[in-house]
Design goal:
The complex is a heterodimer of chains A (289) and B (244).
Chain A lengths: L20 E16 L2 E15 L7 E6 L6 H8 L7 E6 L4 E2 L6 E3 L11 H11 L4 H14 L15 H16 L2 E5 L7 H15 L6 E6 L2 H7 L2 E9 L5 E12 L15 H14 L3
Parallel strand pairs in A: 3-8, 3-9, 6-7, 7-8
Antiparallel strand pairs in A: 1-2, 1-4, 4-5, 9-10
Helix pairs in contact in A: 2-3, 2-4, 3-4, 5-6
Chain B lengths: L1 H17 L8 H14 L2 H28 L7 H9 L9 H7 L3 H26 L3 H9 L4 H11 L2 H25 L6 H10 L3 H29 L11
The chains are: A alpha/beta (289), B mainly alpha (244).
């Protein structure tokens, strides 16, 4: 299953592709189409996430799904999470791929939902119990997660007592208690100031890199943040007819491989001329999606 | 807040004491009537009879209403809950005869009337609480591999437990309001309602005030007790509320 891909020499310098290879497929959508109320929302969406392996570095996958507001990002998000069945096509998870069911992919919605009636620790334990762990094992793993996410001193608090950032981390930790390696985040940068965006981006990369198989898909319309955090960017949008009118039903209009361009895994990449160029290109395409 | 309430209560009492309106019994007259009612007419015993009847009816109404409200997660039960809710518009006075024919025991007739009165309001409030649960909260539970019944248990039952207690608290108050009327229909069973009607019948306004104030005090204590219970059982419920 090993597929050698772009390989290069030095890592850590923006602009020079780091050595990596793409291995097995971790998540794939094949010909996904969906209509809601008779209106086509998704039309033949094909996408794939493959295991990125870098020598000597534990690297997870971070993919950004970009698209203008109202194009169908959240619908595709729900399909990838197994919360909505497509009219046609399939979403496969893992290797060998099995059709996605809800609960196989962790989902962190925009407002970071948690059980308000359970403490932070309780929220994680209940997720662990649903994943089949014993109460003691779930509690132990939950405490380990809280330590890892720097939330151990918040274990006894209720979600209403947390800040937005803490709530987001608890929501992510809760999903990892249950769904192992896959995590979908809907608009994690929405409403955040630039410093907070950087912090969230750094946290997502850190979470992704906790395990080789960790795969994070970020659904967003924030181009700069998406390029900051992702190793691959998918552009979701609608085709246009000869007269320039949008054809109902979105599909992947383009894939930007930041790894091959040497723009992935570098700190302070946001100011790189190549990244800014890429951001400008994506921005120019946004209006036509 | 405590100081404000005390101040307002003292002002109200002062206005009452100094009121030139001779129609109203004065506080000392009410106090004497209370003493007579308590010592000679068994107000304490009647109060207990009413309290236990109200509690019994509240327990039954709560069980029926919560079960029906939770079942509204299934489309089959939604029209039933909606029909029960519409019972709020029915004239209460039309039911005593029907229940008299259905139940031989006057106590059960009273309980049935109270259960009916409370259930229609309880179901209305609770079904509304459940229908207002946003889809994202249900989907959040589903993403954690919860089956549909587990989602109901976690999000609908546990997630709204604080609201259920609040609705119970409101219905306990409705129970007291209805109870005195129901006890008036079946005076042989006693209760504060029967005692109140006797005072009314003999134009003993001081006695009427004494009973009303007694019911108000018991009601407020019951309300306070349920509030304390709520804050103890569901400490998370008030965290997002500014004014408690």
């Amino acid at each position: 299953m090993t597929t050698p891909a772009t390989a290069a020499t030095a890592a850590g310098i923006a602009g020079e592709p780091a050595a990596y290879e793409l291995r097995s497929t971790l998540l794939a959508a094949r010909g996904v189409s969906l209509s809601l109320g008779g209106a086509p929302i998704l039309r033949g969406v094909d996408l794939e996430v493959r295991d990125v392996v870098r020598p000597g570095v534990c690297t997870g996958q971070v993919v950004a799904l970009l698209g203008p507001s109202g194009v169908g990002k959240t619908t595709l998000f729900r399909v990838l999470a197994g919360l909505q069945r497509p009219d046609a096509g399939t979403v496969l998870i893992g290797n060998p791929g099995v059709p996605v069911e809800r609960g196989m992919v962790g989902v962190v919605a925009q407002n970071y939902p948690l059980f308000a009636h359970r403490s932070v620790l309780g929220n994680l334990v209940v997720a662990g119990r649903r994943a089949g762990q014993s109460r003691a094992a779930a509690r132990e793993r939950a405490l380990e997660m809280l330590r890892r996410f720097d939330l151990i001193d918040r274990a006894g608090l209720y979600p209403a007592q947390l800040s937005g950032g803490q709530r987001q981390r608890v929501a992510i930790a809760q999903q990892f208690m249950c769904s192992e390696h896959f995590l979908l985040l809907d608009e994690p940068f929405s409403g955040l100031d630039p410093i907070a965006v950087e912090k969230v981006a750094a946290m997502l990369v850190e979470v992704a890199n906790l395990d080789e198989l960790n795969t994070i898909i970020v659904v967003t319309h924030d181009i700069a943040a998406a390029l900051e955090v992702a190793d691959t960017v998918w552009l979701l949008g609608r085709d246009r007819d000869a007269a320039g009118a949008p054809i109902p039903g979105a599909r992947i209009q383009g894939t930007y491989d930041l790894m091959a361009c040497g723009l992935a895994w570098h700190q302070g990449i946001a100011c790189s001329p190549r990244l800014l160029e890429m951001a400008a290109e994506i921005r120019s395409r946004f209006g036509k999606l | 807040m405590g100081i404000l309430v005390t101040f307002q209560a003292v002002v109200a009492l002062a206005i009452w004491w100094m009121s030139p309106l001779r129609l109203l019994p004065r506080p000392d007259e009410v106090a004497r009537a209370f003493r007579t009612l308590w010592m000679q007419e068994g107000l304490g015993r009647e109060l207990w009879a009413s309290f236990s009847t109200n509690l019994e009816a509240l327990g039954i109404a709560m069980a029926i209403s919560l079960a029906l409200s939770y079942l509204t997660v299934l489309p089959f039960f939604r029209p039933i809950a909606a029909a029960v809710s519409k019972g709020r518009f029915l004239a209460f006075i039309g039911f005593p005869l029907l229940f008299t024919l259905m139940f031989a025991n006057p106590h059960w007739i009273k309980v049935a009337l109270l259960v009916l009165a409370m259930t229609v309001f309880f179901v209305t409030s609770m079904a509304s609480v459940i229908l207002e649960i946003p889809r994202e909260r249900l989907e959040h539970a589903r993403t954690l591999r919860m089956g549909e019944w587990r989602v109901v248990g976690e999000v609908v039952v546990l997630g709204t437990a604080d609201r259920a207690l609040e609705v119970t608290r409101q219905n306990a108050a409705i129970g007291w309001m209805m109870l005195t009327m129901v006890e008036g229909f079946y005076r042989g069973e006693g209760g504060v309602g029967a005692l109140l009607l006797n005072q009314n019948k003999h134009f003993l306004l001081a006695g009427v005030f004494a009973i009303q104030l007694t019911i108000l005090t018991v009601g407020l204590l019951q309300d306070y007790g349920l509030g304390v219970l709520g804050r103890t059982l569901f400490p998370w419920a008030g965290l997002t509320v500014e004014r408690r």
